[in-house]
């Protein structure tokens, strides 16, 4: 059983491999090979050849380099059984991917005994990468590199809120999005995984997502936490297994957000 933690250079190698598969298929207008998966919240949950091929090449390198590590991916499930678990989403934001919008990304997370240790989000269109080595969160872009730091906004009235789609809001009326929307300075939609990266970078203060899988959030947990932010479930628990996820710029803001979202629940979601 491997006891050596991979370094961040290995994450970059995985992202490089995935980029070759995703960028060769981005904005090609190929809609013939798009499949649809079942999803609780969305009628159309697409998967493309880019998703599958990018995951295949990342899995191959992981198996070659860390043969005893467990790998969990969106497209091909879980293989192996280990304290070290790679959690992969080859194209997080497949809907914007097929629309030609560069707010998707390749997500690479690493768990040890179920707790997120390191993570990377790579956006090959904009040539940006966001990552955490477990100690510090970093940004690398075409113009500069820098350490990531979440915003200092600590009052919800001054905060910028993001959620990817308004579709789930009416399906979860017991989650008081309406109250949070009224309380914040501004609400925006449609940023997909790029919005989580912008929270780590200090441009967005709150992200709320209603139905994340582990591979949707794994990469961002260490990025946001080492940048100074907080990521939990709606009930305040660890987020590694997904669910209804709330990310905030700091602990003070996070407590306000959870309090508002959980206030006066009058309905019970089945």
Radius of gyration (Å): 18 Å
Give the percentage of residues in beta strands.
Answer: 25-35%
The count of DSSP E runs of length 2 or more, i.e. the number of strands, is: 15
What is the CATH first-level class name of the largest domain?
Alpha Beta
Low-confidence runs: 266-270
Looking at the structure, what is the overall shape?
Answer: globular
Q: How is the biggest beta sheet arranged?
A: 8 strands, mixed
User: What is the averaged pLDDT score?
Assistant: 93
Number of helices: 8
Q: What fold name goes in the CATH topology slot of the largest domain?
A: Fructose-1,6-Bisphosphatase, Chain A, domain 1
Series of H and E elements: HEEHEEEHEEEEEEHEHEHHEEH
- Percent range of helical residues: 25-40%
The CATH homologous superfamily of the largest domain is named Fructose-1,6-Bisphosphatase, subunit A, domain 1
- Determine the structural class based on helices, strands and strand pairing: alpha+beta
Distance between the termini: 41 Å
Instruction: Record the strand order, biggest sheet.
Output: 4-3-5-6-7-8-9-10
**CATH architectural category of the largest domain:** 2-Layer Sandwich
Q: How many individual domains?
A: 2
InterPro entries: His_9_proposed (IPR011809), Inositol_monophosphatase-like (IPR000760)
GO molecular function, one term: histidinol-phosphatase activity
Cofactor: Mg(2+)
Keywords: Hydrolase
Please explain how this structure is put together:
It is an enzyme of class 3 (hydrolase). Its cofactor is Mg(2+). The chain is an alpha+beta fold and 270 residues long. The protein has 2 domains: 8-147, Fructose-1,6-Bisphosphatase, subunit A, domain 1 (Fructose-1,6-Bisphosphatase, Chain A, domain 1); 156-261, D-Maltodextrin-Binding Protein, domain 2 (3-Layer(aba) Sandwich). Helix content is 29%, strand content 28%. It has 8 helices and 15 strands. It has helices at 8-23, 49-65, 94-99, 177-183, 192-200, 214-217, 220-226, 251-261, and strands spanning 35-37, 45-47, 70-73, 77-79, 84-92, 105-112, 115-123, 128-132, 137-140, 145-147, 160-163, 186-189, 206-212, 230-233, 243-248. The strands form 3 sheets. The protein has an 8-stranded mixed sheet with strand order 4-3-5-6-7-8-9-10, with helices on both faces. Strand 7 (115-123) and strand 8 form a beta hairpin. Helix 1 (8-23) runs antiparallel to helix 2 (49-65) and helix 5 packs parallel to helix 7 (220-226). The longest helix has 17 residues, at 49-65. Residues 266-270 have low confidence and may be disordered.
